[in-house]
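Regression test case RT-17, inverse folding.

Input:
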């Protein structure tokens, strides 16, 4: 039976490392190292061909079973990938429908935003125009009436204040008579 060590030695490796021997053969000629009775010997491959020991081919029964198992695994993987593809396709379709619905909603919202911006501009322009309009006669009349009421209110407050002061003087000059004074006249 051939071991890995024998194979390494036949190919030119001794103890799993490259052999860099300093033998008398030229460095360009391939060398072959063999292990015999604990000693290494170098063979020149130019002179003779060394028989290579290969593994015998596997029996047809084993090869058939390996091929059958490989085919089964491949079919299983193919079926799994096929199922995954179907699932991904269904998910892709549902996401595509959802995306189109979101896009439609976004378009509608953009139209609403544009309409609201247009209305907002129109209202601002109307407000600006209203503030710049000439003052109407009704507005002037209302302002005049309002100012008259403010002036009248101030006048009434002044009158009430004067009356309070006068009442206070009168009360100090003509104070109230006590009960004793009222019952016993002098």
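Golden output:
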């Amino acid at each position: 039976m051939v071991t890995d060590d024998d194979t390494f030695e036949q190919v030119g490796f001794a103890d799993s490392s490259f052999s860099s021997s300093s033998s008398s053969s030229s460095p360009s000629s391939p060398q072959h190292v063999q292990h015999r009775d604990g000693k290494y010997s170098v063979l020149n491959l130019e002179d003779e061909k060394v028989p290579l020991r290969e593994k015998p081919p596997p029996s047809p029964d084993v090869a058939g079973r390996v091929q059958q198992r490989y085919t089964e695994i491949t079919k299983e993987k193919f079926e799994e990938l096929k199922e995954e593809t179907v699932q991904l396709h269904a998910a892709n379709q549902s996401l595509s429908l959802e995306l189109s619905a979101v896009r439609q909603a976004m378009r509608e919202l953009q139209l609403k935003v544009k309409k609201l911006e247009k209305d907002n501009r129109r209202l601002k322009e109307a407000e600006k125009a209203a503030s710049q309009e000439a003052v109407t006669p009704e507005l002037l009349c209302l302002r005049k009436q309002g100012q008259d009421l403010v002036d009248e209110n101030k006048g009434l407050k002044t009158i009430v204040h004067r009356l309070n002061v006068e009442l206070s003087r009168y009360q100090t000059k003509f104070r109230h008579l006590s009960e004793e004074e009222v019952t016993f006249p002098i």
